Amino acid sequence: MTTHTPDLSCVDLVKDFDSFRAVDHVSFEVPQGSFFSILGPSGCGKTTLLRMIAGFQSPTSGDLRIKGRSMIGVPPNKRPVSMVFQHLALFPTMNIGDNVGFGLRQRGVAKPEITRRVEDILARVGLPGVAQRRVDQLSGGQKQRVAIARCMVLEPDVLLLDEPLGALDLKLREHMKIELKALQAEFNTTFVYITHDQSEALVMSDNIAVMNHGRFEQVGPPQEVYHDPQTAFVAGFVGEANKIAATVAAVNGPNLTLRTEAGTELKATAPASGLQSGQRAQVFLRPEAIGLSMTPGDAGEDNVSQGTVTAVLFNGANSSVTVEDASGHALSVALPQTGGFADLRRGSTVYTRWHPDKARLYAAEG
Amino acid sequence: MVSDGSKLGFYLLLAPILLWLAVLIILPHIGLFVVSISERVGPREYEYGIGNYVTFFEEPLYWRTFARTAIMSIAATALTLILGFPIAYYIAKLTRGRTKTTLFLMCMIPFWVSELVRTFGWMILLRETGVISNALQYLGLVDGPVEMLYNDAAIMVGLVYTSILFMVVPLVTTLDSLDDSLIEAGYDLGGTGAAILREIVIPHAMPGIVSGCIVVFMLSLGNYLTPILLGGKDSLWFTGMIYTQFITRFNWELGSALGFLLLLLSSAVVFLGLKLSRQSLAETMGRA
Ligand SMILES: Nc1ncnc2c1ncn2[C@@H]1O[C@H](COP(=O)(O)OP(=O)(O)O)[C@@H](O)[C@H]1O
Ligand SMILES: [Mg+2]
User: Fold this and answer.
1) Which of A63, A209, B84, B257 is 20 to 30 A from B214 (CA-CA)?
2) What is the pTM of this model?
3) Gap from A57 CA to chain B (nearest CA, Å)
4) Nearest 10 degrees: Cα torsion A346, A352, A358, A360
5) Does the B59-287 domain belong in CATH 1.10.3720.10?
6) How much is the ipTM here?
7) pLDDT tens digits for A112-135?
8) What are the residues whose beta carbons fall under 8 Å from the beta carbon of B218, sequence distance 6 or more?
9) How many domains does chain A have?
10) Which of A14, A17, A198 most suits a substitution to test ligand 1, by most atoms within 8 Å of the C-beta?
11) CA angle, A14 then A20 then A26, to 5°
């Protein structure tokens, strides 16, 4: 067999609330065993989409298939998917063992078998022997793992996760990212993970869908979404980016010359931007794509400008400086940890430079 | 000094409650008990003894009425719970905002009129020449007038109607605090409606169920008006019997003994109920 049915596929899914469209013609496929993230700002319709997959909401139109079988009209308790809720929704009136065994009890599995499988799954998520504890006796990260175990014990085709790390503190969140990814690899189950945190999506996913106003703006592997954003929204939402408004002055094949409102000339290479001369555009530049030096360097180099450091934001390996050029336009620049920038101070004069093919260009909206 | 002052304040604040407890609850009950163990041996001559209690156990009418009152009160409590739970669930979980407030208020409307008027309402509906009887005759479902008053079912209807609010309010409060995502998680994990009710909703609502049941049981057991009006003179309700002893027979001694037994009965049933449910409460909530 060369063709595999994907574990989950959505075809032209739409969800309307009264006159408000929360999910707008969304189509995607998630292959078996992969980690798929839906990334988007709050209120863009992620939870609505996930709840449709779980069966708590029915789509206005479109189709939803799990392992090739349409799920339209199938109630949530009959779908081969499980969901980890935003606030986990562990049952406070049951102990951990009963929580994890809940689904098996519903299926009528024999008691000793339930006990064995619950112990087994708890051991696999790294929590052996907690079955007798109460929910409130566990830490945040442990509850997280119990919530996953409670779903995974049912061996679902697809596991849905709704911003499960949102309630954790930063340190634990960093740790759980790695752990979730490891758990997914270990169970080899398809995960659909929704989040508004781009770093969670980038670190864990095989594929990311970037969502805005109910639509998918781009679907692709993390590297592609980060390095080759298809729309201005994706470029701005995923990762840090400097945003420069400019007008196209000249188009010469893939090479464009743009002029900012302050009159600075920019050179950019964008083979498929479709921009015309005179059109207004937005230029997106990653902080790490901008070079920094104390000397002007060769003449004739593109996009070099002199500026003044207005802020040094030290954050270990993620340190950056804000450089303001003569016209007052500020750029955020990643601070290299090597070389002689350690004594960079507010007010220092520096030169910024970036290669024309590092910029992403989009037609300005409106 | 400060602590003395605050102590004084504390006792001053406590005084009305203590006074109320002492004057209206403890003293009358002591009096009741003292009277109940008095036996009349001649005109204006009394002796202490347990004769009144012996009378109670020797006279089948008394202890049968006693048992009947207890059983019917328990049945009324169970019926109120069965009827009140879906109402409370609907108000707490399936409505929001204004609809919720409106429904809640509608539960209270009957309580804006006195119990007497409320009970008369039922009499108008149920009596031989009443609304239901006439309607049935008009529809040709029955030949002659039907009497629906003066039986146990009528008493039950009245008791449930009188006390359902006291079941619905605590249930709505506890069900309101049940997170919807717990119910959804139950469905998501393959639970049926019945399993979710049994394993998630009821354990969560247990405190509300227990407090609602205690209040309704107490109200039913101590109800005088409803059994007399809807059940008739021979309704055989224990409060009616106590009333007869005090007012009709002037036998305060026996009346007191019966009153004291009613107090013991309600305490025992509530204690038993608490004991039974707390066992499960301790197990399910487990947060002493
Ligand atoms: N039941 C509902 N009725 C009406 N509007 C809703 C309902 N659920 C969600 N919405 C709206 O749909 C939009 C998307 O919500 P949601 O899917 O929760 O977003 P996200 O999870 O991405 O933050 C929001 O604007 C929200 O107000
Ligand atoms: Mg959400």
Assistant:
1) B257
2) 0.83
3) 11
4) 70
5) yes
6) 0.84
7) 999 999 999 999 999 999 999 999
8) B266, B270
9) 2
10) A17
11) 20
